[in-house]
Amino acid sequence: DVETYCRAVFLAKGVVKNPKLIIGDKFVRVLDEMASGDVIEIDFVKNPPTVKKNGVNIIGKCDRKSDFDNMILKKGDTEIQFDADDGTNLLAVSIYYNKLYMVI
Question: pTM of the full predicted structure?
Answer without folding.
Answer: 0.91
